[in-house]
Write a structure and sequence with these properties.
Elements lengths: L1 H8 L1 H12 L7 E5 H17 L3 E2 L1 E2 L7 H10 L3 E4 L2 H8 L4 E5 L10 H5 L5 E4 L2 H14 L3 E8 L13 E2 L3 H9 L4 E7 L4 E4 L4 E4 L1 H17 L5 E3 L9 H7 L3 E2 L10 H5 L8 E11 L2 E5 L11 E5 L2 H5 L2 E5 L9 E5 L10 E4 L11 E6 L7 E7 L7
Parallel strand pairs: 1-20, 2-13, 3-4, 4-5, 5-6, 6-7, 7-8, 7-9, 9-12
Antiparallel strand pairs: 1-14, 10-11, 14-15, 14-19, 15-18, 16-17, 16-19, 17-18, 20-21
Helix pairs in contact: 3-4
Protein name: YhfX family PLP-dependent enzyme
InterPro entries: Ala_racemase, Ala_racemase_N, YhfX-like_C
Amino acid sequence: MFLNRLIKTNPQLLKTAFEFHRSGIINPDTYVLDLDSILENAKALIETANDNSISLYMMTKQIGRNPKVAKAISKVGINKAVVVDPWEAITLAKEGIKIGNVGHLVQIPSNMLEEIIRFSPEVITVFSLDKAREISNISKRMGITSKLMLRVIGPDDMIYNGQVGGFREENIIKSIKEIQKLPNVEIEGITAFPCLLFNYETGKVEKTENAITLQRTIEKIRKELQLQINQINMPSVTCIETIPLLKKLGATHGEPGHALTGTTPLHGYTEQKEKIAMAYVSEISHLYEDKAYVYGGGFYNRSHLKGAVVGNTYDNLINNFLLAEDNCSESIDYYGTLELGKNRVKVGDTAIYCFRTQIFVTRSKVAVVEGISRGRPKLLGIYDSLGRKIN
């Protein structure tokens, strides 16, 4: 899947990851980010977004909140970030990255609100009147006005486990009227999540019931309150392929994350304009019976990984694919498992994977590399999974 696409579209990244590991520049459990390709992807996303009058926020959780990459993306034109939680907001803001949307997946804790508000986020997503009141009180004390985005949930919407929260559609008008009474806050936008999802049966990205709820809510707000909604944010699977769909659905904003590294589900199953720009490097730790075990720490349960190429020379590696076994979600991924079959591998061999991930929830290191596309790869730094530079 993704590994095949990597080999076909960005073999220079595969070779660089292999050579960096063999030479000791990087250790196992390291994601290698191809900065050149990420920026190419960002530029292509910007062009498509401009053609469709869609504004973009970059999502960096997938790449470990990496400030080096975020700064580079900002310079080419996606100059604001959507942050998954307030800790990510702090990491990026302290590196000079402007915050576009905060609070959408993780609400801001009460004692952190003032610090986050001082970063001047474009919008703060809220799930409740209580959080809106907190923001109002702090904004009044600070002498500023904060713009809010309300997350709406309809009766038939899908919500991921661990991400429940928002304003019920049937109560949204009443809730807005209550928020309008609060000082120092304004309603800027409405959002829902997820609005688009990849259908593995059809091989296409389709709108969800959540997107229909959002459309219904916007129409109701405009009709009953004559309220101007400046931001209609429809996140999930934002990429070149789906940006025209966002426009068709009435969105004003999208939030590319996996599109920047070419690892949305679309990229695993179909040819897309964004190039795969991320690979995961490990090493054979030991062999036991008919399986090989690689160092873990970076495996992600929703990655749909299929396997890895393994070898101690590049020619051997490229022709030596081993199927992977899924790690049990109940266990810590100290190791990843590969089926040997008829393949021959040795302890110390390099193993390279390519799959969808969320680096910020791993224990991995992140190597940012430029110059891969020019044949002159240069390591810009190694970071931890939360964006802190190690060396």
